[in-house]
Predict the 3D structure of the following.
Amino acid sequence: MIFRARSWELHVAGAHSLKDKRSVIKSLKDRMRREFNVSVAETAYQDQWQRAEITACLVAADAAQADAILEKADRLFEGNPLVRIVDVQDQRL
């Protein structure tokens, strides 16, 4: 059994308020839960309206499966015009 966590620091360029940012972040978190079956939370910068950190955690049968899921999550952020990835950090638990 493999445990993985990945954090994405994001720039939310179109957000002009915390409400705008939370709308974008909530949509991304909901989609990650639904499509990838991961635990996900906003883990930093909750009081900044153009910056966010989202962390996803998962348990997989093997490392290849865990890496494949996290790569799909990377593409979710890369393909979203509302956010830009600033930094990515992996935690291997």
